[in-house]
Write the C-alpha cells for this entry.
Amino acid sequence: MKNSHYILSCLLLLALNPMSIAQKNSKKNIAPINKEVFIQSLISKMSIDEKLGQLTLYTSDMSVTGPVIRDNYKQDIMNGRCGNIFNAYTPAYTRKLQDMAMQSRLRIPLLFGYDVIHGHKTIFPIPLGESCAWDTLLSEKSAKIAALEASADGLHWTYSPMVDIARDPRWGRVAEGSGEDPVLGSAIARAKVKGYQGTDLKSKESILSCVKHFALYGAPVAGRDYNTVDMSMQNMFNVYLPPYKAAIDAGAASVMSSFNEINGVPATANKWLMTDLLRKQWGFKGFVVTDYTSINEMVNHGNVANDYEAGVAALNAGIDMDMQGAVYITHLKSALEKNEVKMADIDAAVYRVLDAKWQLGLFENPYLYCDENRAKQSIMSKENLQTAEEIAIASMVLLKNENNVLPLKAKGNIALIGPFVKNKRDLIGNWSGAGNWTQANNLYDAVVSRTKGDATITYAMGANVTDDTTLIKKMNIQEFIDKRQSTELLKEAIEIASKADVVVMALGESEGMSGEAASRSDIGIPSNQVALLKAIHALGKPIVLLLSNGRPLSLSWENEHINAILETWFLGTQSGPAICKVLFGDANPSGKLTMSFPRSVGQVPIYYAAKNTGRPFDNNQKYTSKYLDIPNTPLYPFGYGLAYTQFEYKNLTLNKNQFKANEGITAQIEVKNIGDKDAFETVQLYVQDLVGSSTRPVKELKKFGKYFIKAGESKTINFTLSTEELKFYNANMDWVLEPGQFKLYMGKNSQEVLEVPFEISGN
Ligand code: BGC
C-alpha cells in the first residue's frame, strides 16, 4: 500500500514533531502526493549542512563484537549531516541506525549501501566466472537472488554491476567484471540491472544498482590497479563505454565514478564525462557517487591543490555523493559563500539522492527493509543454494580433455591433491561481502559423499597456496597456512598419488590474489604449486587439474603436460558440489571463456578483437608483427570451452549477400552434437568490416546464443543482425555505417569459425 499521501502534511510538522513519517502516515488514506512537489518542498526546508549531509556517505565498521558506527558519525546522522551509510547490514543494525536518522530534524531516512558483488550470503561465482556461462538469464537470476537476500538484510543499494571491460589479466579486478568484450559485457550489464532493480524499486525485494567504475577503470597502464588510463576516443566509444551505457539504458539508478583519469582529468572531476556525456548525451537521471575517497585522491593525481579545490571540482563536474571523503560536508559551505559552487547544483544533487530514497519507498516507511522474519526466510534458502549450484556448473570452462580423462568414473583409487581440495576460505572468492566462507561446501566432502562405497578417496594438501612469505603477509592468510615443511607436504602427496589410478589436483590462486589492489606481474599458478604439479606429473599418472583463480592464468606448461584442465574460478558457496558434478559427469561443462588466456604474460594485453596492423603475423617474414619466442595467438581464445561431447558446425548461409542500410542480415548455421552426451553449446557470431575509414578489428562479436542439443541431434541456429550493429565511431567520432565488404563468422569460439562474405551497398 502506498502511504505517500501523508508526506506533505507531515512536512509542515517535521521540525516540531519527532514521530516518523511512516508512523504518522500508516493509518491515513489520502491521495498520493507528487514526488517532485514533495522533494522540492523538503529541499526548501533544508539547511546547507542538511543538504550536504544528503551528499555524504560514510562507512560503518566491524568490531569483534559485531557492527559498530563511529561516535562522530552517530552525531552526524542525528544532526542530519550524514544521509547515507555503507557496510552496515542486518535488519536489527540498520534499524538502529535508521532510528538515529529519525531523531534528526527532518527525519530523512538513511540509505544503506554495500558491495553485493556476486551474492549477499548465498555466494555465486565471481563475475568473471559467471560471465563464462554466456547466459544472461542466469546473470539476472543471481542478481535477483542477491537483491532478495540483501534487501532482506536491511540493504537498499549495491555497488554492482562492475562493467569495466578488461583486457589485461595482470589487473586483479578482472575477477569482478565480465571480460574483454563490449557486446557480451553490455548484455550482462543489462541483465544485472534488471535482476537487482526488478520492475519496481518500491518492492521490498529489489535494490538500487550502481554501475561502476565510470569510466575506463579496466584499462590501467600495465595492469597495475589505480594506474593512469590513456585511451583514444575511438577505443573508448567503440569498446569501453558500451557496457556502462547499456546499464544506464536498462535503468541503473546510480553510477560510481572511477579512480582513474580520462583524457588527463580524473573521472571524479571530469565534467565532460559526468555531465556532458552521462547526463546530457545519455540522459542519465540517477545519482553519481564517488569511489572510496576519490575526491580526496585528486590531490595526489595533481589536478587540484587541496581537498577544498577537489570538492569544488567534483561538484562542478556533476558528482552527487562523496563516499567516505567528507570533503563536501567540510568544504562546500565555504565554497558556496565564495561563489565557487552554486546552490542550484547542490540542490540538484540533493534532489537526485532524495529521489532514490523516494523510489525505494523509504519516505513511506524508513524501516521497510528492516524485517527480521524476511531475513530468516529469504537468506540462504534451499532454492537460492540450488540456483547457486546451477550457475556454478554453468560457469566452469573445460580447457583440455585429452583422451576423455574426464568425466571420471567413481571407482578405483582417486587421489585428491592440492590446497583447494579441503579449502573453504577461498571458494567464495574476492568481494564476497557478507558471505560466510565457513558455510561454503568444499570439494573433498562432495567427492567423498559422491563416491561412497564405489571408490577409495585419498587426500594430501601437497603445498600451501604460496610459499612467498611477503605475499602471505600481504594477503593476511597466515592462519590458512600448513606449517609443515613444503618437502614434507610434497612427500605425502607423492605417496598417495603413487597409489592412485587418477590424480585430481586442485591448484590456483588464493582469493586475495585477485580483486582490488591485487595486480600480479606473474600470472602463473604460484611456483610452489607448479613444483608440486611437476612432481606428481613425473609419476606418469593421469592428472585432472582443477583451477581456482580470479583471472586468466598463463598455463603453457600445464596445457602441454596435463591431461585434463577444468577452470573453476571461485564458484561460491556451492563450489564443491558443482565441481564434483562436472568431475563425475553428472553435469556437462558448458562455459566458454570471456577473456583470452595468454601463453605468457609478455603477450598481455591480449584480446581477440585486435587490429590487423600493416604487417600482420607471418612466421616466414621477419618484419611482421610478432614475438621471436611465441606465436601471437592466445593459449585459449575468447569464446573457447569444451564439453563432454563434440559439436560439428556446417552450412553457414545468409538470407542474401548484399544488403542496404536498415535491412536485416539473417545468418543460419547447422550445429550437430556428434558425441554421445546431451550438452549446451554457445554459438557465436562475429563480423569483420574489411575496409573502413578507420581500421577495424579482425573480428567483433555481434550475437550469441546458448542451446541445449541432445546427443546426435542437429539444430539450425538463426541470428538476425541489424545494420545498426555494424556501425562504429569513426575518426571524427561520428556513429556511422560504412558501405563495403564484410565477413560474417559463426562458430564455437573466436578462432574456430566458418565464414561467409557479404556487402553493404551504398544506397
Ligand atoms: C572499490 C569499489 C567499492 C568501494 C566501496 C572501492 O575501493 O573500488 O568498487 O564499491 O570501494 O566498498
Summary: Residues 1-6, 12-20, 25-29 have pLDDT under 50 and may be disordered. The domain at 647-760 is CATH 2.60.40.10 (Immunoglobulin-like). The chain has three domains: 43-375, 385-595, 647-760. Residues 115, 159, 212, 291-292, 516 surround beta-D-glucopyranose (CB under 6 Å).
